[in-house]
Amino acid sequence: MIPQSFISDLLNRVDIVDVVGRYVQLKKGGANFMGLCPFHNEKSPSFTVSPTKQFYHCFGCGAHGTSIGFLIEYSGMGFVDAVKDLAQSVGMVVPDADDRIPPAQRAQMQAQSMALSEAMSVACDYYRAQLRTAPQAIAYLKGRGLTGEIAARFGLGYAPGGWDNLRAVFPDYEAVALVEAGLIIDRVDEEGHKTKRYDRFRDRVMFPIRNTKGQVIAFGGRIMDQGEPKYLNSPETPLFSKGSELYGLFEARQAIRDAGYVLVTEGYMDVVALAQMGFPQAVATLGTACTPTHVQKLLRQTDDVIFSFDGDKAGRRAARRALEACLPHVSDNKTIKFLFLPAEHDPDSYIREHGAPAFEQQVQEAMPLSQFLLREVAGEHDLGEPEGRARTQFDAKPLLQAMAPSALRLQIVRGLAGMTQSTPAEIEGLFELAKPVSVARRAPPRAGRPEPVGLELQLVRHLVAHPALALEIDASALAAFAALGPSAAERLGQLVQMGCALGQHGGFAALAQQLKEQGGEYDAIISEIAAEPESDVEAVRVFTHGAIRQIKGDALKAELNALAGSGLSAAEIGARYREISAQLDQLQREAEAERANR
User: Fold this and answer.
1) What is the pTM of this model?
2) Which of 276, 435, 448, 511 could tie 467 with a disulfide, CB 3.0–4.6 Å?
């Protein structure tokens, strides 16, 4: 787990204007920067980035967050990856409690990663340059209906024939990094001695594969004539794991948001051809089955995923593997569908033969996951016979067990029960499903804390906007918060504790990121603060001190009024009366001193 102190330090070092500016064109507008929101379509800019708050906010769609949140939402990174990316940009190393790698070894690993990234970038530039002078490769791409514009968008290139063309590109052709990056192959004899070194990719159209940051991490090479393999991919490297990456995701991110869904295909050419024909929201798996990691990445980008598979047997097998990868991530607010084209077509050939409107119709009529699952488990079993129904249930059991309890799982259970002449409760009991939905009596939801109002709301807003103020709140103030009620005392105590933990340099962005990780209780307040001009911290400090004095004074006066009926002796009442009066006088002196110092 990454320490919160590191997150705070990181957000203090990075500049959100630089982070967002890599992806959004920003212009100075008063104290803030403005641009078109990358999270929804708009023609006039309502997206603001505040350098003082280190926070972004869109007045159109309400999107807001820190530099970390922006990378997560825009690039589809996980939290840890976003933190590591930002840390690397400012020369920080993310601490890891489970990290046992010595610092020297870690530095060596980082140097290796940089060397591999540089090698891939140089190779990509070389292949792109070679395409301009390769008439046969240009003719092949034109024959597939691609324009120069689309080839440039995806960075397509050409690896010439010959065994060692990269020798002219890399001064040290014998460098270990070239083998580790998958650009070069070392041939060895039976005794393990290297006998020859040669280029992996030769006489192929090259498709660079990028990660979510846009860095080239691998290549796919397509042969232009007959031969095997038709596609040659980079091997697994320290930069590239094909079970984690999706071709075209970097290029498709904005199109996915615009379209509202992502289309997952099986090949490079499908992605490029679909982009050419008006479907730039397409991505592809990299010569491997769809994995749960792929599904996670896709669902970070959009709530609607459509898998497109060829209609042949191989396509059906791929669809079944994608279904299994999706099940652990299925939820009621996500929609996953499966598109099956006629057996003789892939997306590239179908859209060229039938046109974009016909393909759009196919997309609209894609099969929902629930329907595909039930069709898969039914297979060719005879549902008119007990054996067929039992076999259907047997095949369905591991699939339903992979799903989390949800309304969608219940709907599938009900569908299966109807097919197999059972009840939903019988299915859930027979399958030993976690947290059965159909038979469980749900307890009423626990009410959350009441929304803050009045003085509590003002204090909450100030402690969120200026976390360092928490360092000025002492134990007596925390005790006085009880006068506002148990919920208020708990909330204000939590904010004071978090603000103190962030320290003197703790800022709004760091606390907002921490609160966001804990849930959505403070989302509305954070959004309001992000949308407002920067408040005067000195004025806020004066108000906060005054509010705390008011709370303390009101609590003391209430106790004073209740002394007569407290059951104490006359002497005890007198002593307590004098103590309370002295404390009220002290509060009055503090207020006068603060007014005199203004």
Assistant:
1) 0.69
2) 511
330 exposure class (CB count in 10 Å sphere: 0-12, 13-18, 19+): buried
CA gap 121, 573 in Å, rounded: 81
Tell me the torsion sign for CA atoms 485, 490, 491, 497. Answer: positive
Backbone angles phi, psi at 429, to 5 degrees: -70, -45
Task: Give tens-digit pLDDT for 199-233.
Answer: 999 999 999 999 877 889 999 999 998 888 889 99
Q: For 523-569, what is each residue's pLDDT tens digit? A: 889 988 888 888 888 888 888 888 888 888 887 888 777 777 777 87
Q: What's the burial of 304, exposed, middle or buried (CB within 10 Å: 0-12/13-18/19+)?
A: middle
> What is the β-pairing status of strands 157-159 and 204-210?
antiparallel
Inter-residue contact 194 to 184 (CB < 8 Å): no
Which one, of 466, 519, 492, 518, lies nearest residue 53 by Cα?
Answer: 466
Q: Average the pLDDT over each of 2-6, 142-146, 334-338, 349-353 and give the range with the smallest value.
A: 2-6
> Taking all residues of the chain, what is their mean pLDDT, rounded to a whole number?
88
Residue 96, sorted as left (phi over 0), alpha (psi -120 to 50) or beta, turns out to be beta
Query: Would you call 188 helix, strand, or coil by DSSP?
Result: strand
Write out the two tokens for 380.
């060719």
Token pair belonging to 522 = 């403070």
Closest CA to 254 of 16, 40, 26: 40
Task: Retrieve residue 279's tokens.
Answer: 């479907």
Closest of 79, 64, 10 to residue 32, by C-alpha: 64
**213-228 burial, b if ≥16 CB within 10 A, otherwise e?**
eebbbbbbbbbbeeee
DSSP E strands in 223-261: the ranges are: 231-233
Percent of the chain with pLDDT over 90: 44
Question: Tell me, what's the pLDDT at 598?
Answer: 64
Spatial distance between the Cα atoms of 156 and 137, rounded to a whole number of angstroms: 10
In one-letter notation, the amino acid at residue 140 is Y
| Residue 235 phi, psi dihedral angles, 5° rounding | -75, 175
